[in-house]
Amino acid sequence: MTDISRTQAWLESLRPKTLPLAFAAIVVGTCACLVARAISIRGWRGLALITAGLLQILSNLANDYGDAVKGSDKP
């Protein structure tokens, strides 16, 4: 087992590889609204992307916490 720094451990626990999937839902929804000309979404696109990313990170951290409490991560 290798020793990693605290910063690296935190960055790995955020699981940045899962963020594109969270962003994809926002991008598809935005494109659908633009095609349908349903609403004006100029100011909301960035906020929606940030919110989706932060919610995905929160979900990843909560999952890791739950696994640690239950002992699921032990070999």
From TrEMBL:
Entry keyword Transmembrane: yes
Keyword Membrane: yes
GO molecular function ontology, one term from the record: 1,4-dihydroxy-2-naphthoate polyprenyltransferase activity
Transmembrane segments: 20-39
Keywords: Membrane, Transferase, Transmembrane, Transmembrane helix
Top-level class of the enzyme under EC nomenclature: transferase
This enzyme's EC code(s): 2.5.1.-, 2.5.1.74
Full protein name: 1,4-dihydroxy-2-naphthoate octaprenyltransferase
Organism: Enterobacter cancerogenus
Upper taxonomic lineage: Bacteria, Pseudomonadati, Pseudomonadota, Gammaproteobacteria, Enterobacterales
Gene: menA_1
